[in-house]
Amino acid sequence: MSEQVRSWRLHRRTTFSERDLAQWLNPIVSGWMNYNGRFYRSELYPLLRRINVYLVRWMRKKYKRLRTFKKALAAWDRTTRQYPRFFAHWRWVPEF
Fold first, then answer.
1. What digits encode the pLDDT tens for the residues 30-69?
2. Number of domains composing the chain
3. Domain span at residue 8?
4. What is 73-94 written as a DSSP string?
5. Exposure class string for 39-66: b at 16+ Cβ within 10 A, else e
6. Which of 15, 43, 74, 89 is the most exposed place for a label (fewest CB within 10 A)?
7. Chain-centre distance of CA 89, in angstroms?
8. Model-level pTM?
């Protein structure tokens, strides 16, 4: 699964909107959460956090005003509070 997440190269898909990313990622990640989460839920947490790190990198590349880490972190906190179920894995791991 880690290899597949790396192969997606999320941070390079700056032409996608947030909604496009969510529609693309949610079925895959929720399937992993449903299947692997029943047996090794704690093993999924690092993978889901890594997806969040890639999403923050995507934000920083897509939006020029979020290039600094401090501004990107503030935007991440604001987004996860306003839309807690936008991405499927935010139910388990909203922080990065």
1. 999 999 888 888 889 999 999 999 999 999 999 999 999 9
2. 1
3. 2-91
4. HHHHHHHHHH-TTSSGGGGT--
5. eeeeebeebbbbbbebbbebbbebeeeb
6. 15
7. 7
8. 0.90
